[in-house]
Design goal:
By secondary structure, the protein is an alpha+beta fold. It has two domains: 223 residues, Rossmann fold, CATH 3.40.50.300; 121 residues, Beta Barrel (OB fold (Dihydrolipoamide Acetyltransferase, E2P)), CATH 2.40.50. It contains eight helices and 20 strands. The protein has a six-stranded mixed beta sheet with strand order 6-7-8-3-9-10, with helices on both faces. β12 and β13 form a beta hairpin. α2 runs parallel beside α4 and α3 packs across α4. The longest helix has 18 residues.
């Protein structure tokens, strides 16, 4: 698969602050890549560098094999969808979508045909005569997307595209937006701090911290096999158990901590020595009686009802607090705070262990592209 966007040793300094520190990234044709990370990690600066709104201190932005550092933002073949959509309030839906085409000097026939196609694509044809103030947040986003696509960009850039929507609409729109982009087949780079958006919408996720990419991979790879404590804690709920890896009597690697011993699943980076065991809420089960020999006793400290799922916080007698997600069922009684319980791993759960030294490390770079490995 050919690359569309490549970043080579991209750095950006604002005075004494290093916002981007030698970032390398490759985005292939048709991929949806999300830049994910906490506020201040450099993800928006990186997106704006691709758009041409930020002048780099060093490094190269390459699009379809051409270095575009010196190409002005308005001449780059990219389209950017802003967080607030930036629709013209005095223009109708149709006028907003056609604006870029009219600025390009397209004929009226071409503009009319293109606008009809785009409004049909985003299912907004019946609202073509309305003004932005007469539309819902989700409808405004669809219009903004149609306007961005009208100029036929090579790459679509999304800056927190769902942040302005309420939770229920945001959950629906991230599915609708992903389906729409898949149908178009356009290469897309999205910025978000919302892990659910990244996991739901992305083909690849670049997890950023301190101006560098600390892990790059498939969404489930980052969720199931984080390379560091930061990655484990930022993507999903996690409890990290500290311990050590050693070989048992039959030569297999095992992880041992105060809470017990477990066989280490395949991980080429694991060697004997200090390590962390990743525990997700869905990895655990909870019961009022021990179901296996190694179940750990504890006390329920808090119960959160989330509709179909009940979340329990349990303080282990000899260990940290852990969270456990349980699907509500008439067969499973609801537990209450203060109850004595036993916690164990669900059958078939594969635990992930990584070296304690990996707290500041990163995964191999995408497509063997070299990249700074340490987080700042």
């Amino acid at each position: 698969m050919s690359s569309v966007v490549e970043l080579h040793k991209v750095s950006k300094r604002y005075g004494s602050t290093l916002a981007l520190d030698g970032v390398d990234l490759r985005v292939d044709d048709g991929q949806f890549v999300t830049l994910l990370g906490p506020s201040g990690c450099g993800k928006t600066t990186l997106l704006r560098s691709i758009a041409g709104f930020v002048e780099l201190t060093s490094g190269e932005v390459v699009l379809d094999g051409r270095v575009i550092n010196d190409v002005p933002a308005n001449q780059r073949p990219v389209g950017m969808l802003f967080q607030q959509y930036a629709l013209f309030p005095h223009m109708t839906v149709e006028e907003n979508v056609s604006f870029g085409l009219r600025m390009q000097g397209r004929s009226k026939a071409v503009v009319a045909h293109k606008v009809d196609d785009l409004l049909a694509l985003v299912e907004m044809g019946q609202f073509r005569s309305r003004y932005p103030s007469q539309l819902s947040g989700g409808q405004q986003q669809r219009v903004a997307l149609a306007r961005t696509l009208a100029i036929e960009p090579r790459v679509l850039l999304l800056d927190e595209p769902l942040a302005a929507l309420d939770r229920k609409l945001r959950m629906q729109m991230r599915i609708d937006l992903k389906k729409l982009i898949d149908r178009i087949g356009i290469t897309t780079i999205c910025v978000t701090h919302d892990q659910d958006e990244a996991l739901t919408m992305s083909d690849k996720v670049a997890l950023m911290n301190g101006g560098v990419i600390v892990q790059y991979g498939d969404p489930l790879e980052i969720y199931d096999r984080p390379v560091s404590a930061f990655a484990a804690g930022f993507v999903g709920d996690a409890t990290l158990l500290n311990g050590a890896v050693h070989r048992d009597r039959i030569g297999q690697l095992v992880f041992e901590s105060e809470q017990g011993t477990t066989v280490v699943p395949a991980n080429p980076s694991i060697v004997e020595g200090p390590a962390c065991l990743l525990v997700r809420p869905e990895h655990l089960r909870v019961s009022t009686q021990p179901l296996e020999q190694h179940d750990l006793p504890g006390v329920v400290t808090f119960v959160t009802h989330l509709g179909a799922v009940t979340e329990y916080e349990v303080r282990l007698d000899d260990g940290p607090d852990v969270r456990i997600d349980t699907v509500r069922s008439g067969e499973v009684p609801t537990l209450e705070a203060g109850m004595r319980v036993y916690v164990g791993f669900r059958p078939g759960t594969s635990q992930w262990v990584f070296p304690t030294a990996a707290v500041a490390s990163a995964s191999p770079a995408p497509h063997d592209t070299p990249r700074r490995a340490e987080a700042r």
